[in-house]
């Protein structure tokens, strides 16, 4: 089935701010071939997909369809060219029925809908996929697997030639995965080119004809499946360069501060057990969908655990809301600064005192502004928050300074356990180094720290121990010396000690 | 210079300008307008609504709405009247009416804060339900003949020329201003109104604050209903019917965003003055009530439309500026993996 490629990406580069998301990547997709794309979080896979589907434009490079250069300006244009993508969470119109969802992109052909014809065609397409589904059933209530099938049918109705599948199996059961793969094989036989992205290596090696590995926005290797081993793929994905040496002056103390045993929450994660000592940085590593944030949210009481035990300083505790967590000395610094972490129209001072507002009230419940300003000024100095005054709106600060305000807000609660969720995501290199320095300083003061980060070199460099999760399960805990990029990645991808 | 200009262009500045304009036109066309009696009278005619507008300001800044206030006013008025009619001492009748207001507020607050239903739906149900209870209590009667001290609450001068209700409003306005702008609760009202998730992730008991606000709303509405009964001297099943729209108009025209998070009592105070003076001027000029309502309605539409249009214009302008910058430097602002 080889011959000429349908879609060729030639020397594509794309930069976002200071991040080079893609650097000179070339890729060919052939009809009737399943091409798997592997890579860590941030390796550039998503950016490539977004360029293929017209969401982003490349800074440089060429896209060729059937050997002719094309410009893909929007998802609509991509669809018209026969390029479609389906995602882990399909985008359905829940109140429309299956047939309407399949033909939604055909709307606008005229004022009237030929319902009979639409149902017949929808049934024909589903039959082509060998799928049994009532086309008159509303999309609401369909399983994720069924919704994905509808998305695939929708792509077929548009004469798809390149189908991109981004983590399509993440939310499926083993049986549903088999059914999906049957459909994929049928599409392959029909000559569709498929770009398949998954963090599950077994699946990739099961379905792919060719395996390509990305790292740091570059194409590291690309070879037919027969020529690649699991170990080889993991080695190619790892080995990210560590840009600088992180500071490390803190020492772990003997006192076990937090002891977690068999922690779980229905539908999110289960069987998570670990200790954190005073002055220790415990890294949480894992790929997208590993459910690390859910563990943090359980400890902080936002989404309380329903299984297992938490012991703090020798006392068993139950944490069902954030106030209880705060009373036990737990602070959680959210990964979503703008959506969950900071009140953007409020001042730096108001944000820093928000969790501890009671300390800044007089007996009548009125704000003691001078005390509030003093605290804010203290943190502005200590964390070097760059702003003309503590009365500045937080929404007007840079990402790095917002991150520092968030840290100040939680340090002001005087935590014993500080949970940092992606503390350096989306901030510039300088601010990142400052945050790393701060983490080290805090650990040196004896604060226990859980560091959730998708930046593998960061986790490895900062942590005393690394806990690896995968799809809601704890895969391994490595000491600082055991934790290599290969081992952590292998665990994160479900390969027990592959390296 | 720029800051000064912005201040003049602010919503409060605009309201102040409109107020001065209205007052000037009124004074020119109707000499009676400037008399102290007329000024007091202008407040008195709407005193119950403007008292409720104070607590409605808190509710809307908090990102909610309470459509049931007028029904709570009516219910409180009916309870006072019916209990008095059955021989209950007036003082006790008032206490029961206020308690009923607290219960109504707690009912709304429970569904909104602890069950998470939208306040628009819950208080719409409350609006119909509480009015229904009021009508069942009073049936088709009109009950009056209240004791003299009670009717005096709404009309008779208490200190100098100022009646009790007006003094009460002044006190409540001061209290609301202090709480909203200078207290911890006021700070939380804004934070939750802008983004309740941020408050929750900061360990703040969001449901408790929302419940508290709805209870306050019920209590104040009941108090206003009692005052209304006192001023009118008689109560019927439709007492205070439709007041909620005037009350919400006052708050929105005051620059409080219907989406929550922004606005202040200075703006609401000014908007109350604008509406009252506008209506008063039109009354003095013998403009009919229907036309008056139309004019206030136009004002409301403008008040909702203008800030949104300004926002859209600003965003478009900013986007253009960013695009220009991008073209110059070849850098985009968003980051993705």
UniProtKB/TrEMBL annotation, chain A:
GO molecular function list: ATP binding; ATP hydrolysis activity
Location, primary (coarse class): membrane
Annotated membrane topology: Peripheral membrane protein
Keywords: ATP-binding, Cell membrane, Membrane, Nucleotide-binding, Repeat, Sugar transport, Translocase, Transport
Domain ABC transporter: from-to ranges: 7-241, 252-496
Alphabetized InterPro entries for the sequence: AAA+_ATPase, ABC_carbohydrate_import_ATPase, ABC_transporter-like_ATP-bd, ABC_transporter-like_CS, P-loop_NTPase
SMART domains named in the record: AAA
Cell compartments where the protein resides: Cell membrane
Top-rank lineage group of the source organism: Bacteria
PANTHER family to which the protein is assigned, alphabetical: CARBOHYDRATE TRANSPORT ATP-BINDING PROTEIN MG119-RELATED (PTHR43790), D-ALLOSE IMPORT ATP-BINDING PROTEIN ALSA-RELATED (PTHR43790:SF3)
Protein's UniProt name: D-xylose ABC transporter ATP-binding protein
Annotated source species: Chloroflexus islandicus
UniProtKB/TrEMBL annotation, chain B:
Membrane topology classification: Multi-pass membrane protein
Spans through the membrane: 51-84, 91-114, 120-138, 158-180, 211-230, 251-276, 291-310
GO cellular component, one term: plasma membrane
Listed GO MF terms: transmembrane transporter activity
Places the protein is found: Cell membrane
InterPro entries: ABC_transp_permease
Top-level division of the source organism's lineage: Bacteria
Keywords: Cell inner membrane, Cell membrane, Membrane, Transmembrane, Transmembrane helix, Transport
Cross-referenced CDD domains: TM_PBP1_transp_AraH_like (cd06579)
Protein name: Autoinducer 2 import system permease protein LsrD
Organism: Chloroflexus islandicus
